[in-house]
Amino acid sequence: MGNITDSELAGSLRRAVLDADPALSRYNPLSRILVFDQFNSGTHGWTELIGNHDGEGNLDTVDDHMRDFRPPQLSSCTFFDVGTHGAMTGTYALKVATRPLAGHTAVAIRRLTMAKKGLVQFETYFTYKAEAASEENGAAQQAGAGEWDGNIHPSEQQFGAFTVATDICDDRGVRYHCVARYQNTDLENRFTRRWMYPVVPEPTPREHLEGKAKLAATDDFTAPNPDDWRYFGEPQSFCYNEVPTKVNWHYLRWQLDTEKQRNVELQVNDRVYDMRDVPVPAYEERYDSLDNLLNFYVSTRTHTNVRNFLFLDSVLISVDW
Question: Which Pfam families match (predicted)?
Answer without folding.
Answer: DUF6772
